[in-house]
Amino acid sequence: MIKKIIVSFGLLFSAASLAQEGTASPYSYYGIGDVRFKGTAENRAMGGIGILNDSIHVNLQNPAAYSALKLTTLSVGATHSMTSLKTSEAKGDASRTTLDYFALAFPAGKLGVGFGLMPYSSVGYTVNSPSTSPTTPNRYYTGEGGLNKVFLGAGYQITSKFSLGIDANYNFGNVETKGLRAYPDVYLGTRELNTSDFSGFNVNLGLIFNTKIGKKQEFLASATYTPESNLKSQNTRKIATFLGNEIIDVEVDIPVDDTEIKMPSKFAFGAGFGEKSKWFVGGEVTMQETSGFGNRYNDITNVTYEDATRYSIGGYYIPNYRSFTSYFKRITYRAGLKYENTGLVVGGTAIKDYGVTMGLGLPVGNAFSSINLGFEYGRRGTTFDGLIKENYTNVFLSLSLSDKWFVKRKYE
Q: pTM to 2 decimals?
């Protein structure tokens, strides 16, 4: 059974890894693209809260949670996104399938260690603005690429109530954007091709406090802090004239400065309570100083940034995880809500994001492994001031395999 599941997921992720345009949003043109959610499917289904320190599930949002692991855990996830884009004059649809993360974590006494790979941000859009008269050009814009991160983290249980953790991340990637302009009655058009190669390091610090508040209930508090860091961007720009299907006539390299993008600091605090392996409810607030954020190129003038804030609430419920008679009683039911001021301000209008999430944790094989299925429906942006409103539906899936590794055999 487990082998078949692994093969199926392997085929899924092979397909997903070939199409790492993780967004269809025109807003991904700005900055380093559309910043992706950096947690597991389990957390995402609960509104994105990263509070829980679980003994059999990886928490990629707070490295202090590694210390709670009792089993070695392999976790992989992917998402299929369907987006409806609408302006005051037109609308369109797009879909993407992407790999979300690959992570492996294992316990070593009071220490837990984890490492893996995940997308950090994505650029992926196509915008077509046809001419309305002989004096206005046809415009066509595309963008693709994104930023990835490799991470190595560790968490240590200082006392029975406190755990500390740290993640070290190397961020890297490439973004290419292209713009075409052609007047209806003009023989040649112009093409602008921009590329940016990114690289940089940052760290993420975490703290978790856990205490009993009754015979069965417990209280959890979580905090993470990501200090400000810099991301180097090596930029190039080429201007060309083209004929027909982008047959290049003349291409000229235009000097542009390499830039150093400030990666803003981020602080998140959350708290919740519940009964372990039964139910939990909590909330989290994330604040990011994106007001000092920059774009890949210094000549983008229609966008500014303000500090970003995200609010998330969510939780889970398991009827009876020890039930031998009912499979449905062992399923984990998850749900949550989120609201985010993204910090992006286009043409003087702040871009905001609202969403509702839900999911199921389906036990497979032994009692510690699961398939996690989740759904997210949300809205971002607006049709006012000539902007774009996005209604999106995300279906996400993960496999969490937990077992004892590195155990010396008594008998050969």
A: 0.87
